[in-house]
C-alpha cells in the first residue's frame, strides 16, 4: 500500500521535471532558438539540440529547494503554508484512476493496470480539482496583497465556470461506455462503433465533447491562453507572487503535473487509452529462449504514453502561439458558447448510444 | 474481530452533530455559525450512509444525496442573507443585529 | 505483484476500521477547530479538512459515489462560497471586532447533554437487521437494492424516486433566483445611522454610494 | 464597443491600486494609480518623473559638441533620431549646409533605428498581451539591426554618431550589401512570421479590436502624434508635411487608418516597417560619394538666436527648441517629446475599461519613459 503511494509521488515529480525540460525545449523550437543547452553533458549537447541541457530542470529544482522560503510578516500563516501543499496533493491525487494499460496474463479477463481503478473514476477526476480551487483561493487571499487577491479571484472564477462544460463534455463518453470507471471506458472503446471495428475511439462519436473538454482542460489547469490568474504582464504571477523557494516550486510542479493528467485523461477517454484499433496484443510473448510475461501490459503502456505525450505536445504548442484571453471574453466564451455546445454533445452521444444499443447489441 | 459496527459510526456522527450545535450556539460571527450548521448537515449525512451500508439498503444514500442538495441550497441562501446584512450594518456580529427597522 | 489495489487481501488486518477511526479522529478534531478558532478564515480551512475526512468515511462505508459527490458539492461549492463570504466580510488587517463567544458554558452544557442522550439511545438499541433486509428486499423493484453500486443508485434514483429528483431541481432553481434577488441593491437605500440617507431617486451615480464611508 | 459602464444593480466599493513604477508591463518606470471597481477601471492617473535625469539642465553646462551624447539619452530606444533633432537645431542656428553623403547616412541610420524601435514595440506589445513567441521573433531580428549599428558606430543602443556638420565616421565598405542582405532576409519574414502568428488569431482580434478607441479630436486635444495619430486618420508624418534633409528625394507613402483603436496602431507600425525598408533600399542606391563631415572647431560659438526643429522620430514628431546666447554653451535646450503627450492621453482613455485592457492599450501607445521624464 505504502509503496504504491511513494511510487505515485516519485513518478509524478520525475515526470513533472521532465515536462518542464520538454516545455522549454518545445518553446525554444517554436521560437527558433535552442532552449536550455548548458547544464548537461557537453558532448550530448553538440550531437543534437534535443539532447542538450537535460540537467536544466534538475538544477532549477535544487536551486528552488535551497532558496530561502520568505514568509512575509503580514501574511495569514496557516493559509499561506497550507495552499501549496493542498495544490500538490490535488495534483497527485488525480493520477489515481488513470488506466495506464491492461493485461490478461494470469487473469481470466482483462484487468486494467491503474493505481486504483475506482468505479467512480471520472466523477473522482472532476471532484479533485475543487481542492485546487480552494487552495488557489486561500493562496490569493492569505498572501494579503492586492495583485495576488485579484489573481486568486480571477482563477477561481475561471475554474468554476469552466468546470461545468467540462463535466458535460465528459458526460458523452460516460453515456457511450455506460460506466464511470475509466478502465471500462477504455474497454468500451476497443469494440468498434456500429459494428465497424476501427471507429472505436470516443473521439469519433463525440467530437464536440472532445473539443470542449480540451478547451476546458486548458482553462482548468490555468495554462495559456487561459492563464489570466498568473499573467506576468498584468498581475505579476497572480496568486503566487509572494511565494518563493520550495513553495513556488510546488505550485510550478503542480501546474505541469496537471497538464500531464489532463492530457492522459483526454487519451484515456477520447483516444482509446491503451487500445490499438483492431490489434489486441497477446498476454505473453515467447522470444524463443524465454517467455516475456505481461507483454500486453508493456505494449499498452507504450501506446498510452505515445498518445498522452502527443496531446501534451499540442498543449505546449498552443501555449506558445496564442495570446492571452481577456477575462470577460473568457466568461462569455465559457458560458455562452461552450456550455450549450457540451449539452448538445450529450444529446448527440445519447442518440448514438441508443442506436448502438438497439442495432448492435450494446457496447460494453 | 474488529469489524466496523454501526454503533461506532453513529456515535461519531452524534459527536460531530453536537460539535456543530455548540458552534451554532456560541459563535458570534454569523458565517462561523453557518459553518457549524454545515457540520450538523454532514453529521446527518454520515448517519444516513452508515445505515445504508449496514442495512444494506440503497435508500440511505439517495436520502443523503437529497440532503446534500438541500444543504447546498440552504447555505447559498444563508450567505446571501448574511451579505445583505453586512451591506446594511457593516458588520456581521450576531449580537449586534437586533434592530428591527431598516 | 499486486497490480491493482482492490485485489489486495483486506481481511487479514482490519485496515478499514483503522482507517475509519483515523478519518473520524481527524474529522472530530477539525470540527472542534471550526467551533473554537478565533479567526473565521482558519475556521473555514478546518471545515474543509472536516469535509474531506467525511468524504473519506463515505468511501470506507462502501459508497465511493457519495464520497466523490461530497468532495464535489461540499468542498468545491459550499466551502468555496463560505470562504468567499469570509473574504468579503472579514477585514484581515483592521482591528477585528471582538469575536469572543457569548455564554460558552451554556452552549457546552447543552451540547454535552445532547451527546449523552444520543449516546444512550445509540448504544442501548439493538439493530436487528438480519431479518429485516430480506423482508423488504422482496419489493417489486427489479434493482437489487442491497448492493450500493453506482448503477443501482442511478436506477433507483430515477425510477421510484423520479418525482423527488425533479423536485430537487426546482428547489435549486428557486434558490438561484432568491440568492440573486437578495444580492441586488434595494431601490431605496436603508436609513442607516451614520451614512447620509441617499436621495432615493438616483442611488446609482458612483459619487455618493452609501457604501462609501 | 468595449466600454463597461458601472452596473447600477451591484453595490460595490472602489479600491485604489498603484500599478507602480516597478511593474512588468509599464515599459520602464511609469506609475498608474488606478481606482478599480472589481475588474473595471474607474479612473487612472499616470504619475511620471521617476526617470528624470535633467538632461536639459546638464546641456546648459556643456559645449554644443558635448551635447550630442546627452541628446542620445533623451530617447535611448531610438537614439539616432533624438540626437539628429539636436544636431539639426544647431546647424539651423549656424545655417550650415552639410555634405549630401552625410545627409544620406543620417537618413539611413535613422530609418534603421526606426526599424529597431518598431521591432521593440511589436515585441513588447505582443508580450503584454501574452504572446511570448512574437516577442522573441521581434528581438531576434532587432539583434541583426544592432549588429549593423555596432559595426559603424561601435555601440548598440546609444550611438553618439551624429556630429554638428555631419556624422562621426563613414560606413565600412561592406556595410551597404550587409544591410541589403538583412532587408532581403527580414522583409519576407514580416508577413510570413510576424503577422501570420498574430493577425488572424481571433483571441488577438478580441483583445485589440475596438479597445482604447481614440477619436481624432481627442487625439489632437492631447497632442498625440506619430503612428498613434495616423491610426486616428490624420497624416502628420513630418517627413511628408515639412520634409527635412533628403526625404523629398525619396518616395515612400504614409500608412493611414481611421479606427484609432489598439489594432489600428499595431497595423500602422507594421506598415511603417515596410516603408522604412523601402526608404533604406532607395538610400543604398542613391548614396553619393564625398565628404561625410564638415569639421567644426571644438570651441564652436553659435550666433545668438533661437530655433525650433521638428523631425519624425519612431514615436512621433520630436521637436528640439534651442536658444543660444552667442557663447559656446547653449542657453536653453528643450525637447518636445511624443511620449510625454501620449502619457497624458492615458487619464482620458483608461476609463470604464477592464484591468487587462490597460496593459494592451498602454503597450499599443509604445510610450518610452526616458523620453517622458528626460
Question: Can you put this structure into words, describing what you see?
Answer:
The complex is a heterotetramer of chains A (364), B (102), C (213) and D (374). Chain B has 102 residues and is an all-alpha fold. Chain B contains three helices and no strands. Chain B has a single domain, classed as Helix Hairpins, CATH 1.10.287. Chain B is 75% helix and 0% strand. In chain B, α1 runs antiparallel to α2 and α2 packs antiparallel against α3. The longest helix of chain B is centred in the last third of the chain and has 31 residues. Chain B starts with 5 loop residues before the first helix and ends in a 13-residue tail after the last helix. Among the domains of chain C are: 93 residues, Up-down Bundle (Four Helix Bundle (Hemerythrin (Met), subunit A)); 41 residues. In chain C, 61% of the residues lie in helices and 0% in strands. In chain C, α1 packs antiparallel against α2 and α2 runs antiparallel to α3. With 213 residues, chain C is mainly α. The longest helix of chain D has 30 residues. The model of chain D has no long low-confidence stretch (mean pLDDT 84). In chain D, α4 runs antiparallel to α13, α5 packs antiparallel against α6 and α11 packs parallel to α13. Chains in contact: A-C, A-D, B-C, C-D. Chains B and C meet through α1, α2 and α3 of B and α1, α2, α3, α4 and α5 of C.
How is this structure best summarized?
The complex is a heterotetramer of chains A (about 375), B (about 100), C (about 210) and D (about 375). Chain B is an all-alpha fold and about 100 residues long.
Looking at this protein, list some descriptive labels.
heterotetramer; B: 102 residues; mainly alpha; Helix Hairpins; 3 helices; 75% helix; D: 374 residues; alpha+beta; Cytochrome-c3 Hydrogenase, chain B; four-stranded antiparallel β-sheet; three-stranded antiparallel β-sheet; 47% helix; 14% strand; globular
Tell me roughly what share of residues is in helical segments of chain A: 55-70%
Number of helical stretches of at least 4 residues of chain D: 14
Order of helices and strands of chain D: EEEHHHHHEEHHHHHHEEEHEHH
Beta-strand fraction estimate of chain A: under 5%
Report how far apart the termini of chain A are: 31 Å
Average pLDDT value of chain A? 81
Low-confidence parts of chain A: none
Radius of gyration of chain A using CA atoms only = 22 Å
Q: How would the blueprint of this fold be written?
A:
The complex is a heterotetramer of chains A (364), B (102), C (213) and D (374).
Chain A: H1 2-30, H2 42-47, H3 56-66, H4 77-93, E1 101-103, E2 111-113, H5 121-127, H6 129-142, H7 146-177, H8 182-190, H9 207-220, H10 232-235, H11 246-270, E3 285-286, E4 291-292, H12 295-321, H13 327-360
Antiparallel strand pairs in A: 1-2, 3-4
Helix pairs in contact in A: 1-3, 1-11, 1-12, 4-6, 4-11, 6-7, 7-8, 7-9, 7-13, 9-11, 9-13, 11-12
Chain B: H1 6-26, H2 30-54, H3 59-89
Helix pairs in contact in B: 1-2, 2-3
Chain C: H1 15-36, H2 40-60, H3 64-89, H4 104-124, H5 130-137, H6 150-158, H7 162-183
Helix pairs in contact in C: 1-2, 2-3
Amino acid at each position: 500500500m505504502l509503496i504504491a503511494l511513494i511510487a505515485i509521488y516519485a513518478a509524478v515529480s520525475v515526470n513533472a521535471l521532465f515536462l518542464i525540460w520538454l516545455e522549454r525545449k518545445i518553446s525554444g523550437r517554436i521560437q527558433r532558438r535552442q532552449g536550455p543547452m548548458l547544464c548537461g553533458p557537453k558532448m550530448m549537447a553538440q550531437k543534437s539540440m534535443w539532447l542538450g541541457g537535460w540537467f536544466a530542470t534538475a538544477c532549477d529544482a535544487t536551486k528552488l529547494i535551497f532558496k530561502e522560503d520568505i514568509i512575509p510578516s503580514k501574511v495569514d500563516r496557516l493559509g499561506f503554508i497550507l495552499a501549496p501543499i493542498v495544490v500538490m496533493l490535488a495534483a497527485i491525487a488525480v493520477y489515481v484512476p488513470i488506466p495506464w494499460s491492461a493485461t490478461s496474463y494470469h487473469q481470466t479477463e482483462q484487468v486494467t493496470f491503474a493505481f486504483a481503478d475506482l468505479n467512480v473514476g471520472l466523477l473522482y477526476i472532476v471532484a479533485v480539482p475543487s481542492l485546487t480551487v480552494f487552495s488557489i483561493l486561500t493562496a490569493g487571499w492569505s498572501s494579503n496583497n492586492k495583485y495576488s487577491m485579484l489573481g486568486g479571484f480571477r482563477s477561481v472564477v475561471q475554474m468554476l465556470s469552466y468546470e461545468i462544460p467540462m463535466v458535460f463534455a465528459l458526460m458523452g463518453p460516460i453515456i457511450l461506455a455506460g460506466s464511470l470507471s475509466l478502465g471500462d471506458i477504455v474497454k468500451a472503446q476497443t469494440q468498434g462503433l456500429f459494428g465497424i471495428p476501427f471507429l472505436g475511439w470516443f473521439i469519433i462519436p463525440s467530437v464536440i465533447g472532445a473539443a470542449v473538454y480540451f478547451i476546458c482542460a486548458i482553462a482548468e489547469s490555468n495554462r495559456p491562453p487561459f492563464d489570466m490568474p498568473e499573467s506576468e504582464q498584468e498581475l505579476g504571477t497572480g496568486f503566487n507572487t509572494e511565494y518563493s523557494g520550495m513553495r513556488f516550486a510546488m505550485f510550478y510542479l503542480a501546474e505541469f503535473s496537471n497538464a500531464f493528467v489532463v492530457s492522459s485523461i483526454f487519451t484515456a477517454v477520447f483516444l482509446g487509452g491503451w487500445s490499438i484499433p483492431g490489434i489486441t496484443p497477446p498476454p505473453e510473448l515467447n522470444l524463443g529462449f524465454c517467455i516475456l510475461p505481461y507483454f500486453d501490459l508493456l505494449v499498452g503502456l507504450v501506446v498510452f504514453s505515445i498518445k498522452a505525450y502527443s496531446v501534451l505536445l499540442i498543449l505546449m504548442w498552443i501555449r506558445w502561439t496564442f495570446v492571452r484571453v481577456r477575462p470577460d471574453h473568457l466568461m462569455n466564451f465559457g458560458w455562452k458558447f461552450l456550455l450549450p455546445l457540451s449539452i448538445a454533445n450529450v444529446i448527440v452521444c445519447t442518440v448514438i448510444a441508443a442506436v448502438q444499443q438497439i442495432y448492435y447489441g450494446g457496447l460494453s | 474481530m474488529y469489524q466496523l459496527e454501526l454503533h461506532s459510526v453513529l456515535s461519531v456522527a452524534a459527536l460531530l452533530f453536537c460539535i456543530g450545535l455548540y458552534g451554532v450556539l456560541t459563535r458570534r460571527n454569523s458565517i462561523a455559525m453557518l459553518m457549524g450548521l454545515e457540520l450538523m448537515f454532514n453529521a446527518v449525512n454520515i448517519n444516513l450512509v452508515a445505515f445504508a451500508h449496514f442495512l444494506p439498503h440503497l435508500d440511505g444514500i439517495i436520502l443523503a444525496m437529497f440532503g446534500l442538495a438541500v444543504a447546498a441550497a440552504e447555505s447559498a441562501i444563508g450567505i446571501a442573507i448574511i451579505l445583505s446584512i453586512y451591506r446594511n450594518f457593516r458588520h456581521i456580529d450576531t449580537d449586534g443585529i437586533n434592530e428591527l427597522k431598516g | 505483484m499486486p497490480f491493482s489495489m482492490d485485489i489486495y487481501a483486506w481481511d487479514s488486518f482490519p485496515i478499514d476500521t483503522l482507517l475509519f477511526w483515523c478519518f473520524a479522529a481527524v474529522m472530530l478534531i477539525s470540527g472542534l477547530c471550526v467551533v473554537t478558532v478565533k479567526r473565521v478564515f482558519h475556521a473555514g480551512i478546518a471545515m474543509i479538512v472536516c469535509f474531506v475526512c467525511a468524504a473519506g468515511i463515505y468511501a470506507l462505508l462502501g459508497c465511493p459515489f457519495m464520497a466523490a459527490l461530497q468532495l464535489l458539492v461540499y468542498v468545491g461549492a459550499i466551502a468555496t462560497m463560505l470562504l468567499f463570504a469570509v473574504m468579503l466580510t472579514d477585514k484581515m488587517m483592521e482591528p477585528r471586532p471582538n469575536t469572543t463567544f457569548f455564554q460558552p458554558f451554556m452552549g457546552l452544557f447543552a451540547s454535552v447533554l445532547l451527546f449523552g442522550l444520543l449516546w444512550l439511545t445509540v448504544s442501548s438499541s439493538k439493530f436487528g437487521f438480519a431479518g429485516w433486509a430480506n423482508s423488504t428486499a422482496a419489493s417489486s423493484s427489479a434493482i437489487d437494492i442491497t448492493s450500493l453500486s453506482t448503477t443501482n443508485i442511478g436506477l433507483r434514483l430515477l425510477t421510484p424516486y423520479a418525482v423527488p429528483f425533479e423536485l430537487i431541481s426546482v428547489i435549486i432553481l428557486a434558490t438561484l433566483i432568491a440568492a440573486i434577488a437578495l444580492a441586488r441593491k434595494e431601490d431605496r437605500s436603508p436609513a442607516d445611522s451614520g451614512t447620509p440617507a441617499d436621495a432615493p431617486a438616483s442611488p446609482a451615480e458612483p459619487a455618493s454610494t452609501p457604501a462609501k464611508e | 464597443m468595449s466600454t463597461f459602464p458601472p452596473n447600477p444593480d451591484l453595490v460595490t466599493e472602489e479600491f485604489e491600486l498603484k500599478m507602480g513604477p516597478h511593474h512588468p508591463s509599464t515599459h520602464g518606470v511609469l506609475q498608474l494609480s488606478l481606482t478599480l471597481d472589481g475588474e473595471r477601471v474607474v479612473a487612472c492617473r499616470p504619475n511620471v518623473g521617476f526617470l528624470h535625469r535633467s538632461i536639459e539642465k546638464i546641456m546648459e553646462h556643456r559645449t554644443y559638441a558635448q551635447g550630442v551624447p546627452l541628446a542620445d539619452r533623451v530617447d535611448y530606444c531610438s537614439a539616432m533620431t533624438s540626437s539628429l533633432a539636436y544636431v539639426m537645431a544647431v546647424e539651423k542656428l549656424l545655417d550650415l549646409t552639410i555634405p549630401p553623403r552625410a545627409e544620406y547616412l543620417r537618413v539611413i541610420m535613422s530609418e534603421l533605428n526606426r526599424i529597431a524601435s518598431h521591432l521593440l514595440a511589436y515585441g513588447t506589445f505582443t508580450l503584454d498581451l501574452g504572446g511570448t513567441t512574437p516577442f522573441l521573433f521581434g528581438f531576434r531580428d532587432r539583434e541583426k539591426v544592432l549588429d549593423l549599428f555596432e559595426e559603424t558606430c561601435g555601440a548598440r543602443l546609444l550611438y553618439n554618431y551624429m556630429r554638428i556638420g555631419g556624422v562621426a565616421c563613414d560606413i565600412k565598405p561592406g556595410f551597404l550589401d550587409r544591410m541589403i542582405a538583412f532587408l532581403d532576409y527580414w522583409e519576407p519574414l514580416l508577413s510570413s512570421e510576424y503577422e501570420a502568428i498574430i493577425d488572424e488569431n481571433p483571441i488577438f482580434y478580441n483583445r485589440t479590436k475596438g479597445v482604447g478607441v481614440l477619436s481624432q479630436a481627442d487625439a489632437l486635444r492631447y497632442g498625440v502624434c506619430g503612428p498613434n495619430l495616423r491610426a486616428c486618420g490624420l497624416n502628420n508624418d513630418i517627413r511628408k508635411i515639412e520634409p527635412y534633409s533628403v526625404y523629398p528625394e525619396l518616395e515612400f507613402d504614409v500608412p493611414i487608418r481611421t479606427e484609432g483603436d489598439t489594432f489600428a496602431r499595431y497595423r500602422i507600425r507594421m506598415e511603417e516597417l515596410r516603408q522604412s525598408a523601402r526608404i533604406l533600399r532607395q538610400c543604398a542606391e542613391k548614396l553619393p560619394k564625398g565628404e561625410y563631415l564638415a569639421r567644426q572647431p571644438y570651441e564652436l560659438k553659435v550666433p545668438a538666436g533661437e530655433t525650433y526643429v521638428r523631425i519624425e522620430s519612431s514615436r512621433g514628431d520630436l521637436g528640439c527648441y534651442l536658444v543660444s546666447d552667442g557663447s559656446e554653451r547653449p542657453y536653453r535646450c528643450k525637447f518636445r517629446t511624443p511620449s510625454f503627450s501620449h502619457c497624458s492621453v492615458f487619464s482620458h482613455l483608461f476609463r470604464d475599461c477592464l484591468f487587462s485592457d490597460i496593459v494592451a492599450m498602454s503597450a499599443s501607445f509604445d510610450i518610452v519613459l526616458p523620453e517622458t521624464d528626460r
